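Posting here for the record, re: zinc ion.
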Amino acid sequence: MPFSYERAKEALLDERAKLLEQLQEMRPAKLEDIGHSNHMADDGTEAFEQTVGVAVHRKVGAALQEVERALAKFEDGTYGICESCGARIDRARLEILPSALYCLDCQSRHEQGVRQVSSR
Ligand SMILES: [Zn+2]
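Prediction output follows.
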C-alpha cells in the first residue's frame, strides 16, 4: 500500500490511543503496585523503579504531545512540512515516523544541538 496522508493520520490516531492508554496505566497508584509485587526489592530499588516510571511517564507524555501536534497539522494543512525550514518532509520518513515535525536534516541538527540522546 502506498503511503498517504490518510494512512499517516490513521497511524497517528492509533498511536494517540495507545499512548493515552499507557498514560492511564501509569498512574502513581500503579507504580506502587509494581513495587509491592516484588517484596525482595529494597527501598533503593523501589525508588529507582519509581524514577524510571516517572521518566517513562514523561517520555510517553512528550510523545503524546508530538502526536497531537502532528494531528493538529492536518487541520492547518501543514502536515508533512518541516517546522524549521518549511521543506516537505520525505514521505519515507513520515511513513516510519508519522509524528515527525522536522525534516531529517533539521531533526539531526536539532538533536545534535540539544544533546546526544538515543531515543528508542
Ligand atoms: Zn527542515
